[in-house]
Amino acid sequence: MNTPNTPQPAGRLAGKIILVSGAASGMGAQHARAICQEGGSAIIADIAHEAGRQLAAELNELHGRKAALYAELDVADHQDWTRAVAAAKEHFGALHGLVNNAGVGSKGSVLESSIEDWKRTIDINLTGNFLGMKAAVPLLRENPTSSIINVSSIAGLVGFKNRAAYSASKWGIQGLTKTSALDLGELGIRVNSIHPGSVNTPLTAGLKRGFGQVPAGRAAEVDEVSPLVIYLLSDESRYVSGANIAIDGGETAGNNLRAFN
Ligand SMILES: NC(=O)c1ccc[n+]([C@@H]2O[C@H](COP(=O)([O-])OP(=O)(O)OC[C@H]3O[C@@H](n4cnc5c(N)ncnc54)[C@H](O)[C@@H]3O)[C@@H](O)[C@H]2O)c1
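Above: inputs. Below: predicted complex with nicotinamide-adenine-dinucleotide.
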């Protein structure tokens, strides 16, 4: 653990404390790893307690410093958020970034989606981002250069067949992000949304996906997404706010299906 004589870590996020929701698995876990690799510290917040605690222990061991903390968090619960942010303050003394990454998939058109599915998807994917910002902003604003990243999807850039609730939740994130960039800019907080295409994670493991629409011709691996998150968390992106950035191998660049006619 850190003492006054502990050398400060070097890296693009040196000294920055970042809360990542949904960080026990998939992209969130890789973001937490990358944050620690770049000299920052990560609060790994999730409902998957065992996996989250394991990852925090692994990162503390790997980096030999107070690199990570696990916090129990259901993103749809306002009180959980209050506790997670308080834990960050108590353990690390500050918060410089928030990655609203936790999310769930849901399938179905408006005809097929149940009202319960709709509410659950909006609660976790969209309200979860709102609650996260609401809880974290009072601490984030104590620093002059804080950054919030809201994880949307390409389903929040274009329509997405058979994903009515998911797409609505992800488009909602884009609107919440742009409006919050306007509202929070004067507090020194930048807010951006990222829009991954197909990424190989447990969330997509069971899906049949075609890549004909993807110029890259394949899905991404999680370590191809984290560099964008690191950039947006770091002061290198200090003039970037209110942006919605696709990271999708070109999938939403346009219609890619007419090569031969
Ligand atoms: N994988 C993809 O292709 C893809 C593409 C675009 C966007 N996304 C988005 O990226 C984000 C991460 O997805 P992933 O693919 O890494 O998924 P994943 O399933 O591997 O990880 C999601 C994490 O969120 C956690 N989680 C779920 N509900 C939660 C809740 N209520 N409170 C706290 N944590 C909760 C899970 O326990 C898990 O650890 C999601 O928002 C997802 O919608 C994923």
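The two ends are 63 Å apart (CA to CA).
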